[in-house]
Write a structure and sequence with these properties.
The complex is a heterodimer. Helices cover about 15% and strands about 35% of the residues of chain A. Chain A has helices spanning about 85-90, 125-135, 200-210, 255, and strands at about 15-25, 30-35, 50, 60-65, 70, 75-80, 95-105, 115-120, 140-150, 165-170, 175, 190-195, 215-220, 235, 240-245, 250. Chain B has helices spanning about 30, 80-90, 105-115, 145-155, 170-180, 220-235, 245-255, 265-270, 275-285; strands at about 5-10, 10-15, 15-20, 40-45, 60-65, 65-70, 95-100, 120-125, 160-165, 185-190, 195, 200, 205, 210-215, 240, 260-265. The chains are: A alpha/beta, B alpha/beta.
């Protein structure tokens, strides 16, 4: 595995490289945050990487969004789901990990201005953290709507960059008890950015469409190549079939869900 | 230095490694990661006469040591391929193989005539597609049905014709012999194995089409056996594939009788697998004292 980095001759925008785990911390029952060395990989709001820490045991790399990025580090926040994320969660400081990225078209920051709401559900919340930070840095005002099933996480990653934070939990003790979409007043915003379960994003899209507010959704789909070659992640849109990994994952809601 | 050059239909491949259809697009995306000109050849995404949207729902699904896919031949169609993607693929210094499927004899014939007149090196005929006329049974199951398609395409095709066999054929050796007799210049095998996966919690098949194609390391030993038994019985070059992940696997397929190989699923496991396998192959051949890679073809 050590030899991967040696092959990087040209500095491509997408690169496949080996990195080192700096920390890998369990923050809730089933959620982890992993910090890896960035090796000058590009990363913008809503983009993701394909990750693997195995050679032959598993066939496909796993898509995980960028949670936070600093000059030296990339952070990923991920939920334990199956075999792949279990292997990721077992990584220790100093272990090596292979990354492919940054991938996809994230939130188009140059088109998003004014008062912005980010609406996240579950592990759709982490990618909105980097997004919020970048929006605040370019002078926009951001409110965060964070929906949880039970335990709450990552709120502190929004606090420095938001005007208001709304929290809901279906079962947990904190915040509004119910769905986060119940709290969203779309008419107060110039644009709404959402990431999370598809049912939640559909609801957000519907609320926005009723109030004529632009809504951007980050889609999830099973992936094989992650770079746009296999068409394993194509979804129907009003513009024809589009690859979630390459044309997305962020799409205009009006291109995804018909009224 | 081992001579890795391979000749098929008088076309020179700088090495016997070809990217398999459907796993490599038209080469553009992978070329962002490494120079795809290092490959012997690239087989294009499976084309059909008219553009296709492909299947809905889940299209790729990991399985033990492999994966299943049900992409459903999403592709821009033969005309768009000729206009937009041949020029793209011609940027690389590698053999250009156009992979084409169809759902009726007319589709195959019109598609093959158009591609044959275009700037491609080889036409790879995918006969694993369902035949609309016979209730969706693939052309590549019964030897007489496949032979009919190959014979007809042969008449309109002026380019070397590589026929890609399905491992789901009733009898793979008879299938291979029938395609050879019908005019195939070479054979590539195998395509994916028909397989199934069920989500027991939802009590539903994972794929909307219920069945999907299995590929990757899991199929390698069966693919190897098929390549071996076919190569013994035909007189045209055999291109082997199915779960190849290392340079040693390449040698195994060649020893079993393959003149060249294709690599598919491994491109997903290791995005620069093409380059790695080409580099490793040169090294392993040195270690094994192989002067000319063609010397080992069919030694078993
Ligand atoms: C663009 C994108 C960004 C993502 N970002 C995050 C993130 O930041 N944090 C996070 O916790 N999760 C994220 N996910 C979901 C994450 O990819 C899956 O939870 C993970 O792949 C599960 O792998 P596994 O082996 O543990 O599970 P298994 O169920 O054993 O995986 C089997 C196969 O299904 C795929 N798969 C399973 N669930 C999903 C899913 N929901 N989406 C896509 N593929 C899936 C796996 O990749 C693998 O190929 C993202 C998914 C996508 C498409
Ligand atoms: C996602 C995917 C898409 C594929 N699309 C095609 C195709 O369009 N035409 C074709 O002839 N074979 C197609 N195949 C089959 C491969 O070319 C190859 O025959 C098969 O996957 C076995 O090789 P492998 O185990 O190395 O992947 C596809 C395979 C996969 C995994
Ligand atoms: S995962 Fe291969 S095209 Fe998106």
């Amino acid at each position: 595995m050590r030899s991967l980095t040696r092959y990087i001759i040209k500095q491509h925008i997408v690169k496949y490289f080996e990195s080192t785990v700096e920390s890998n911390i369990q923050i809730t029952d089933d959620i982890y945050v992993m910090t890896v060395l960035r090796h000058e990989a590009k990363a913008s709001a809503g983009q993701f990487f394909m990750l693997k820490c195995w050679d032959k045991e598993l066939t496909l790399m796993r898509p995980i969004s960028v949670y936070q990025a600093s000059e030296e580090h990339l952070l990923f926040m991920y939920r334990l789901v199956g075999e792949g994320t279990r292997k990721l969660a077992a990584l220790k400081n100093g272990d090596s990990i292979s990354l492919l990225g940054a991938l996809g078209n994230g939130y188009p920051l140059d088109q998003i201005h004014g008062r912005i709401a980010v609406v996240g559900g579950g592990v759709g919340i982490p990618p909105l953290s980097l997004t919020t930070k970048m929006l605040q840095a370019q002078g926009e005002t951001v409110d965060a709507y964070l929906g949880y099933r039970d335990e709450i996480f990552a709120v502190e990653a929004f606090e420095p960059y938001c005007r208001d934070i709304f929290i809901s939990s279906e079962k947990g003790p904190e915040g509004y008890r119910g769905f986060i979409t119940d709290l969203l007043k779309a008419e107060q915003y110039d644009a709404v950015l959402t990431c999370g379960p598809e049912v939640m994003m559909r609801k957000v899209a519907q609320i926005c469409s009723e109030k004529n507010v632009t809504c951007w959704c980050s889609m999830e789909h099973r992936m094989a190549c992650g770079i746009g070659a296999c068409l394993g992640c194509s979804i129907p849109t009003t513009e024809g079939m589009r690859r979630v990994c390459k044309d997305g994952p962020v799409f205009l809601a009006s291109h995804l869900f018909q009224k | 230095m081992t001579n890795l050059h391979t000749t098929i239909h008088d076309i020179d491949f700088k090495n016997p490694i070809i990217a398999a259809s459907g796993t490599f697009g038209f080469g553009e995306e992978y070329n962002e990661l490494f120079d795809v000109s290092c490959l012997g050849g690239i087989s294009s995404k499976g084309l059909t006469l008219r553009p296709k949207d492909g299947n809905m729902g889940i299209r790729v699904y990991e399985t033990p040591s492999g994966m299943m896919n049900s992409v459903g031949l999403q592709n821009p169609g033969v005309d768009a391929f000729i206009e937009h993607y041949i020029p793209v693929m011609r940027q690389w210094d590698t053999v250009l193989i156009a992979n084409m499927g169809g759902h009726s004899m007319d589709d195959y014939l019109e598609g093959a005539s158009k591609l044959s007149a275009a700037d491609i090196d080889i036409l790879e005929l995918n006969i694993s597609c369902p035949n609309v006329k016979s209730g969706g049974m693939a052309f590549g199951i019964k030897a007489e049905v496949a032979a009919e398609v190959v014979k007809a395409v042969r008449k309109v095709c002026t380019k070397p014709l590589m026929v890609k066999l399905s491992p789901n054929a009733e009898n793979i050796v008879e299938m291979a012999q029938a395609c050879e007799a019908a005019g195939a210049d070479s054979l590539s095998l195998v395509n994916t194995f028909q397989a199934m996966a069920i989500d027991v919690h939802r009590r539903k098949a994972i794929f909307e089409n219920v069945y999907a194609g299995l590929s990757g390391a899991a199929i390698r030993p069966i693919a190897l056996r098929m390549v071996h038994s076919v190569a013994k019985k035909v007189h045209i070059p055999v291109i082997g594939l199915g779960g190849i992940t290392t340079a040693e696997d390449v040698l195994a397929f060649m020893m079993a009788g393959a003149t060249a190989v294709q690599i598919g699923t491994v491109n997903f496991t290791t995005p620069d697998a093409g380059r790695q396998i080409v580099n490793d192959l040169a090294r392993v051949c040195e270690q094994e004292h192989i002067d000319n890679i063609q010397d080992i073809v069919g030694i078993l």
